[in-house]
Design a protein that fits this description.
This protein has about 325 residues and is α/β, with parallel strands linked by helices. It folds into 2 domains: about 240 residues, TIM Barrel (Alpha-Beta Barrel); about 60 residues, no CATH class. About 50% of the residues lie in helices and about 15% in strands. It has an 8-stranded parallel beta sheet. Strand 5, helix 7 and strand 6 form a beta-alpha-beta unit. Helix 4 packs parallel to helix 6, helix 7 runs parallel beside helix 8 and helix 13 runs antiparallel to helix 14. The mean pLDDT is about 95. The structure holds flavin mononucleotide. Flavin mononucleotide binds next to strand 2 and helix 10.
Length: about 325
């Protein structure tokens, strides 16, 4: 099955602890091409674990959360297929993505995420099994390798394409690098030249100019944005404007506060916890006048009324 044709070139990266329903809708309102769930354990979903289901929290029928992708992690093909079929039936996502990139030790210890990059036959087995059973496009998202001596992304991309994956997202850092150094966009270019399915470039897009440069330098079909979207979902509008007109509006304090107000409205509507709401407000205020002090004051807020007072909303 083919990757969907998206209304914008910029996609929201899956982010654990960040991509709640309100945040995804907000990114969509700013013109994001597709939103992702945070990664969810396939093994937990296969058991219909309620905490895992709650994490997905998808408004599957709401147009303002479409198109959307669900990301799964795990290492057992049977459990992953079970979870993917459950997700397909319950949420009808536009894409189901599989995580080959999480470097967190609790995931790697389970043999999932980045750890799978050392088990190419297992990757093939997982992708083939999911593609055979699903009626939903199945993609993979990976890092470039485990460490600088084992850069396997190109080989893994070829394996995934042959196994039927509909697209490949690559964040070209190794597991060992975590977030240090720079993403090596050359790896994205190599993969784009080697496969025929869409390639989504990811890593170190902090401004609209970076998105344009990544597309130009690598030829990737789409770009995926994580940390910059965490600070400001407005980046999607800016990327869209920059790719179309080569200019965009910079974000001032007033626009940020308007965005925060919109997030608070959505967070209430979609029952986002106050803890998460505060985390978002703290990152949304980065770059604002007096932001360090503001972040501290937000962290001390006990309820929404206090939060609104601190933000002057
Ligand atoms: C807080 C946080 C949570 C993340 N959670 C996930 C995840 O659940 N699944 C995943 O594939 N990547 C996850 N990532 C990685 C991002 O999707 C992305 O690949 C990475 O941040 C590089 O993109 P960026 O430079 O635009 O941030 C996470 C990153 C951050 C910062």
């Amino acid at each position: 099955m083919n990757y969907p044709k998206l209304p914008s070139k910029a996609i929201l990266a899956p982010m654990e602890g960040i991509n709640d329903s309100a945040f995804r809708i907000l990114c969509g309102q700013f013109g994001c091409g597709m939103v992702f769930s945070e990664m969810v354990s396939a093994h937990a979903l296969a058991r219909h674990n309620q905490a895992a289901i709650k994490l997905l929290d998808l408004n599957s029928h709401a147009a303002d959360e479409r198109p959307f992708g669900v990301q799964l992690f795990g290492q057992d093909p049977e459990q992953i297929v079970k979870a993917a079929l459950f997700v397909e039936e319950k949420y009808s996502p536009d894409v189901i993505d599989f995580n080959l990139g999480c470097p967190a030790s609790q995931i790697v210890k389970q043999g999932a995420g980045c750890a799978l990059l050392l088990r190419k036959s297992r990757i093939k087995e997982i992708v083939e099994a999911c593609v055979a059973k699903l009626n939903t496009p199945f993609s993979v998202k990976m890092r470039s390798g485990v460490d600088s001596k084992h850069i396997v992304a190109l080989e893994v991309a070829r394996i995934c394409e042959a196994a039927g994956a509909c697209a490949i997202t690559v964040h070209p850092r190794t597991m060992k690098q975590a977030y240090s150094g720079k993403a090596d966009w050359q790896v994205i270019k190599q993969i784009k030249e080697a496969v025929g399915i869409p390639v989504i470039g990811n890593g170190d897009i902090f401004a609209p100019e970076d998105a344009e440069r990544m597309m130009r330098q690598t030829g990737c079909d789409y770009v995926m944005i994580g940390r910059a979207a965490m600070k400001s979902p407005i980046i999607f509008q800016q990327v869209n404007d920059y790719l179309r007109k080569h200019k965009y509006k910079h974000t001032g304090d007033e626009a940020r506060l308007k965005m925060i107000k919109a997030y608070l409205f959505l967070a209430k509507k979609h029952n986002v916890s106050f803890f998460r709401t505060k985390i978002h407000c703290q990152s949304f205020t980065a770059g604002m006048h007096g932001s360090a002090q503001l972040r501290n004051r937000i962290s001390l807020c006990k309820d929404e009324a206090e939060l609104r007072r601190v933000l002057g909303l």
